[in-house]
């Protein structure tokens, strides 16, 4: 086995390499090439509707496992923002396709850059949430996003969250989850989230927007939001984040043991 000790801050600069030990916050970590890994690459998909706890849980899970994290909703949001900024209508396929074709998306830690500009905050605005759900029905946008997401999956172990990660993007993922929660629980969580970002909306407005988005995401022709046949469903309405995380880690341990990859 070949072990390499290096100093690096940006893991993206090391395609084909995987974190093996060390602290991502620190500078010195041990990495090894995929071909040397004792534990094969593992893809964990986490799909589900808005407010189901996906984002928080996926980030925490990725951090605990030392895997890379991918927020695919942020990618659709960034394309929606590009469409809106160009003054175009997110219902128009040609405008969506054009935006997706030229958009350069780059994640840097928790930040997302669109064509070199940090849009991490802007993409969370309610008008962008609405537009993202429309843009996400576009075949050209989905094709491009799936291509980019699979490219990230090729670089190593990954926790990826979205609507179609287990069904379309990574159908062979080792471990798939689908998180759900009641509309009331989800609306309350989303309201808190918006308040923390300084965005003011009523609970009723948030609830209505969530229901509209759910309906669009579930009923679109292409890659509709639904659990993969082999996904583990986790109902999060009455659970704390820590409880959800524990359930998921237990399932991941089980999957690793079943496949003989537990070390
Ligand atoms: O998870 P989110 O709220 O940030 O997602 C924003 C929109 O993007 C959501 O309405 C549906 C769409 N989306 C999608 O269609 N497929 C994904 N894999 C992720 C998000």
Brief overview:
This protein is of the alpha/beta class and 263 residues long.
Task: Tell me what the structure shows.
- With 263 residues, the protein is α/β, with parallel strands linked by helices.
- It has a domain of 122 residues: 3-Layer(aba) Sandwich (Rossmann fold), CATH 3.40.50.
- The chain has nine helices and eleven strands.
- The strands form three sheets. The chain has a five-stranded parallel beta sheet with strand order 5-9-4-10-11, with helices on both faces. It has a three-stranded antiparallel beta sheet with strand order 1-3-2, with no helix packed on it. A three-stranded antiparallel beta sheet has the order 6-7-8, covered by helices on one side.
- Strand 7 and strand 8 form a beta hairpin.
- Helix 1 crosses helix 9.
- It is globular.
- The two termini are 15 Å apart.
- The relative contact order is 0.17.
- The N terminus is likely disordered.
- 2'-deoxycytidine-5'-monophosphate (DC) binds next to helix 2, helix 4 and helix 8.
- The site of 2'-deoxycytidine-5'-monophosphate has 15 residues, from helix 2, helix 4 and helix 8.
Order of helices and strands: EEEEHEHHEEEHHEHEHHEH
Number of strands: 11
The proportion of strand residues reads: 15-25%
Q: What's the pLDDT, averaged over the residues?
A: 87
Any idea what the radius of gyration is? 18 Å
* Basic shape: globular
Classify the fold: give the CATH topology of the domain at 42-67 and 157-252. Rossmann fold
Poorly predicted runs of 5 or more residues = 1-17, 20-38
Write the layout of secondary structure elements.
Layout: E1 4-7, E2 17-22, E3 28-33, E4 43-47, H1 54-65, E5 68-71, H2 72-85, H3 93-102, E6 105-108, E7 111-114, E8 117-118, H4 126-135, H5 139-153, E9 158-162, H6 165-169, E10 175-180, H7 183-196, H8 203-219, E11 232-235, H9 241-258
Parallel strand pairs: 4-9, 4-10, 5-9, 10-11
Antiparallel strand pairs: 1-3, 2-3, 6-7, 7-8
Helix pairs in contact: 1-9, 2-3, 2-4, 3-5, 7-8
The structure holds 2'-deoxycytidine-5'-monophosphate.
């Amino acid at each position: 086995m070949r072990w390499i000790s290096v100093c690096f801050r940006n893991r993206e600069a090391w395609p084909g390499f995987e974190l093996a030990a060390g602290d991502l916050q620190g500078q010195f970590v041990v990495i090894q090439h995929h071909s040397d890994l004792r534990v094969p690459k593992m893809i964990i998909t986490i799909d589900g509707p808005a407010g189901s706890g996906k984002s928080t849980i996926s980030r925490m899970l990725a951090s605990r496992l030392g895997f890379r994290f991918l927020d695919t909703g942020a990618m659709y949001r960034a394309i929606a923002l590009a469409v809106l900024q160009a003054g175009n209508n997110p219902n128009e396929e040609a405008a969506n396709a054009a935006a997706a074709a030229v958009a350069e998306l780059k994640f840097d830690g928790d930040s997302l850059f669109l064509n070199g500009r940090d849009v991490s905050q802007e993409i969370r605005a309610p008008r962008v949430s609405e537009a993202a759900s429309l843009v996400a029905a576009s075949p050209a946008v989905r094709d491009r996003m799936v291509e980019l997401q699979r490219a990230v999956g090729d670089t190593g172990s990954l926790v990826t969250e979205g609507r179609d990660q287990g069904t379309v993007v990574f159908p062979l993922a080792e471990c798939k989850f689908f998180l759900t929660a009641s509309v009331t629980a989800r609306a309350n969580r989303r309201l808190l989230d918006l308040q923390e970002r300084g965005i003011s909306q009523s609970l009723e407005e948030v609830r209505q927007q969530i229901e509209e988005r759910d309906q669009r995401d579930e009923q679109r022709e292409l890659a509709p939001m639904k659990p993969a046949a082999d996904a583990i469903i986790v109902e999060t309405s009455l659970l704390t984040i820590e409880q959800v995380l524990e359930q998921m880690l237990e399932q991941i341990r089980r999957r690793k043991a079943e496949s003989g990859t537990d070390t």
